[in-house]
Amino acid sequence: MNSILDTFFGLQGRTALVTGGAAGMGYGIARALALAGARLVIADRDAQAAEIAVAKLREAGCEARAYIIDLSQESEIAPMFDAARRYFGTVDILVNNAGSYPKYDFLQITAEQWNAVHQLNLRSLFVCMQQAVKLMLEAGRGGRIINISSVASVHPATIANAHYSAAKAGVNALTRGAALEFAGKGITVNAILPGPIASDGPRDPDAPPVIGPAANPQRWITGRMGTIDEVAAAVLFLAGAGGAYTTGQALAVDGGFLLS
């Protein structure tokens, strides 16, 4: 008999595609899905990191493939889903994790910089959702789409980040619209809004200092930053059978930041 954990969270026989899945939060999410039984496609622009991530998952007994892609190049997205179908037959779970948040002064950001941020953080996510839904409808067994948004989508979090906040607010609206459209097909669409999350990688010494509410420890009402595993756990809930009746939601994993 399956355990209650297998019933609610087991992903055996399912295929997940995680964008930006080679390192950091993306790898933490991919690892959680793989250990729950899913086959993994790790999509990332860093070929070396992607291959290392896949090797780690295979060492843990998981089935995984790497796909190297620059998601800012929209023409590369459909071929990625074609490859996923060749690898594993379909895509049952899409986690749109890839993104970037370069700091630009509100009065200095150029149209080109604005467009680049929105291309990666919003438009490429939309195209990935389109391609995933097509495969899910073709397979006829529903699916899960989980978009990694940000608390910055609903509350300013850091200075010089308004362009990113606007893109993530678009992710939230897109999540709700798609959830409404495909709920009758058994496809759930949800967003996760991470708050301040401790990174497991080195910080760029040339990056500007992070200034704003999210960088203020007094706003971390639980007394600490979150962990990558805590975000991955939320993804695991939404990806499994336990999340089948949850759609169109924006789940903040923020330690209460939005309350403060």
TrEMBL record:
InterPro entries, sorted: KR_dom, NAD(P)-bd_dom_sf, Sc_DH/Rdtase_CS, SDR_fam
Keywords for this protein: Oxidoreductase
Signal sequence, start to end: none
Protein name: Cytochrome P450
Entry-linked Gene3D superfamilies: NAD(P)-binding Rossmann-like Domain (3.40.50.720)
GO molecular function, one term: oxidoreductase activity, acting on the CH-OH group of donors, NAD or NADP as acceptor
Ketoreductase domain sequence ranges: 14-223
Record GO biological process: fatty acid biosynthetic process
Family as reported in the entry's similarity comment: Belongs to the short-chain dehydrogenases/reductases (SDR) family.
